[in-house]
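Appendix B. Chain record.
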Amino acid sequence: MNGRSRDYDLRYAPFAYNFAPDDDPNFNTKSFRTTNVLRWEYKPGSTLFVVWQQARANEAVPGGFRFGRDVRDIFGVPPRNTFLVKFAYWLNY
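Structure tokens predicted for this chain:
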């Protein structure tokens, strides 16, 4: 018997969460992510990519799901935008 099999029960023991009395283990995470890509092949084999990504996340209101409230809340937080440009040119000597 090798050393790894002896500790099998210890490795897979359940973890007990210890919350303070005023902590609430429930959560409600709202997330909206989108990626938009514009691809232009201006010459055969040569391409320009323009990418815009947007991410929004909000954990402000814990509890049950309410569609109208949650959509307003997710679009009420500031977005995290990323813009990328990739230029590929095919060299044919």
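Further analysis of this model is presented in Appendix C.
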